[in-house]
Design goal:
Strand content: 15-25%
Order of helices and strands: EHEHEHEHEHEEEEHHHEE
Radius of gyration: 18 Å
Structural class: alpha/beta
Oligomer: single chain
Number of helices: 8
CATH architecture of the largest domain: 3-Layer(aba) Sandwich
CATH topology of the largest domain: Rossmann fold
Bound molecules: calcium ion
Shape: globular
Number of strands: 11
CATH superfamily of the largest domain: Response regulator
Strand order of the largest sheet: 2-1-3-4-5
């Protein structure tokens, strides 16, 4: 998942950024509310982790503006222990969940997984597509029951396809999902290379090319055991 992290505390922000990366996510971290609001308009994120007290634009304003634009981006709010009113206001403003500081990274990662399950209408914690299965918690991929070894990028790409199994994803959207802004410019053929590797490691029909548009997950029937 590509996450937008908005937290002005440098130590907490750094810990959360590192921890979320270790859980396999692509993370863009902003300390300033105004920059975060600009970032929201500039890339397609899967979820936002939002502190409420921020310099620039505060978290509640960001949340209000987001929902006023009718964007359904899942949002988890970080609040202080004594911030009952802030939590209530955050939920009422359209936050999907909250966590109280201090934050345990494993709990944050689990909350994000649960939030994404609800968003995507999945009740199962393990995602399957034909004979392929992906466990977002352990980040293990199995093909016909066998554990696969995938690189971090291959895994992120596969997760992006499995999250939206019916959507055709353009190259530019896939690049957005796989690379944060600090990661430098990906090579022009990098998505093609990862797609090629996934097809080779799993199945030639795992990902289909939609000419002139991009890529989509192949039909589950073609990937049955
Ligand atoms: Ca703060």
């Amino acid at each position: 998942m590509r996450l937008l992290l908005v937290e002005d505390d440098p130590d907490l922000g750094d810990a959360l950024e590192q921890g979320l990366r270790q859980h396999g996510h692509v993370v863009d971290w902003f300390r300033d509310g105004r920059q975060a609001a600009t970032a929201l308009a500039g890339a397609e994120f899967d979820a936002m982790v939002l502190d409420l007290g921020l310099p620039g634009t505060d978290g509640m304003t960001i949340l209000h503006e987001l929902r006023a634009r009718d964007q359904s981006l899942p949002v988890l709010v970080l609040t202080a222990r004594d911030g009952v009113e802030a939590r209530v206001a955050g939920l009422d403003a359209g936050a999907d969940d909250y966590l109280i500081k201090p934050i345990a990274i494993d709990e944050l990662a689990a909350r994000l997984r649960a939030m994404m399950r609800r968003t995507r209408g999945r009740t199962q914690s393990v995602w399957t597509h034909g004979a392929l299965s992906f466990d977002p918690a352990s980040r293990q991929v199995r093909w016909r029951g066998q554990l696969l070894e995938l690189t971090a990028r291959e895994l992120a790409l596969l997760e992006t396809f499995l999250a939206q199994p019916h959507r055709v994803l353009s190259r530019s959207v896939l690049v957005e999902k796989l690379y944060d802004w600090g990661g430098g410019d990906p090579e022009s053929n990098t998505i093609e290379v990862h797609v090629h590797h996934l097809r080779r490691k799993i199945h030639p029909r795992l990902i289909r090319t939609v000419r002139g548009v991009g890529y989509a997950l192949g039909p589950a029937e073609a990937l049955s055991a």
